[in-house]
Amino acid sequence: MSTTSLPPTPHSTPGVTFADPWSAQAKRADQGERPLIYVNGKIVPKGQAMVSVYDHGLLYGDGVFEGIRVYRGNIFLLKQHMDRMWRCAEAIRLTIPISRDEMVKVLRECIQVNGKSDAYIRLIVSRGAGTLGLDPRRCPVAGVICIVDDISLFPAEMYEKGMRVVVANRPKTPAACLDPRIKSLNYLNNILAKCEAIDHGCHEVVMLNTDGFVTEGSGDNIFYFKGGVLHTPPSDAGLLEGCTRAFVMQRLAPALGFKVVEKNFRLDELLAADEIFLTGSAAEIISVTQIDQHDGKVITKTNVISKGEGPLTKRLRAKFREIVTGDPVPEE
Ligand SMILES: Cc1ncc(COP(=O)(O)O)c(C=O)c1O
Fold first, then answer.
1. Domain that holds residue 174
2. CA of 1 to the centre of ligand 1 (A)
3. With a 6 A CB cut-off, is 114 part of the ligand 1 pocket?
4. What does the H/E/C string look like for 295-327?
5. What's the 280 CA to ligand 1 centre distance in angstroms?
């Protein structure tokens, strides 16, 4: 293998030498500094993976990202993740400095050099280094980072027992301000909602929009079953169009004969559900069995949805696991 198989980026300017990913240095790093990370045209050990402090991704959360799963060496729903990344970049007027084919090559190289077959990919395109001002025109070249690492899932027993979540008092950022369909590096709204979960000993929150309709979790989409029918909010409620969400709606639910309804609903409707679950690339499909409410200090209401993971969620999750452990794992 040689560096020539690595997509050059505009950072690979003539006269500047970058680390050879398969150099003695990188090989030495294999022993202690895993994973090897792609940063702006080179693959370097984790401890050397750095960006400029003038990068607007760092200064302003100006950029986009993806979280992707690798199962059995395949990049699950690769096409959907690439589609979303390009769509989101365009929405924030960010030009991705390498082609889609080159990006896919970067992902595969990172999987390969790290010897992973099951992993999580964090792909970032930042506005790049500029000045201290906001003006994105002062950032001539966007930055690309690809991290392939192990995935830390929720505890295994949580998938059977189900998860307790809390309703966030902080509403979702309205689409007119910053469309939640854009998977931007600016996740403060989600992080502060997640802090509400942490404050009350939960892993996740249910976020409502400013009109009181249910949107999603801080890092997952939400579904509920009522009378055997699957429901989920539409993306214009203010949520990320999750790749796992679409996979559930377009592939899993039809395969199992479940009808899917996309509609706006409020908390009371959610609380009357038979079963609730969350979806995401990291979490996959995880049941929610209790939804609590709080007043900023203490839990004021406890709502039990089901005792453990419900039977329909179990069937969906089993189908999901069958596909991601099967052959071939779908890349689209
Ligand atoms: C806010 C939010 N919603 C939903 C999701 C689930 O999306 P996906 O299934 O593409 O991982 C994520 C995951 O990144 C997220 O951050």
1. 156-324
2. 35
3. no
4. CCCCEEEEEECCCCCCHHHHHHHHHHHHHHCCC
5. 5
Binding site membership of 232 for ligand 1 (Cβ less than 6 Å):
no
The domain that holds 271 is classified in CATH as 3.20.10.10
Q: How many CB atoms lie within 10 A of CB 204?
A: 26
Asked whether residue 170 falls in the same domain as residue 129, the answer is no
- Write the pLDDT tens digit of every residue in 39-51: 999 999 999 999 9
Copy the structure tokens of residue 305: 């949805």
> What is the number of structural domains in the chain?
2
Residue type, 18: F
Whether 138 and 193 share a structural domain: no
Judge if 184 and 291 occupy the same domain: yes
Is 287 found in the same domain as 163? yes
* Ligand 1 center–CA 208 separation, angstroms: 16
245 pocket-lining for ligand 1 (C-beta < 6 Å): yes
pTM of the model: 0.91
Assigned domain for 254 exists: yes
Claim to verify: residue 78 and residue 166 sit in the same structural domain: no
Query: Which residue's structure tokens are 């390498």?
Result: 98
Ligand 1 atom at minimal distance to the Cα of residue 68: 11
For every residue of 192-255, DSSP letters joined together read HHHHHHHHTT-SEEEEE-TTSBEEE-SSSEEEEEETTEEEE--GGGT----HHHHHIIIIIHHH
Quick one: 165 and 310 in the same domain?
yes
Task: Kindly report, residue by residue over 145-171, the tens digit of the pLDDT.
Answer: 999 999 888 899 999 999 999 999 999
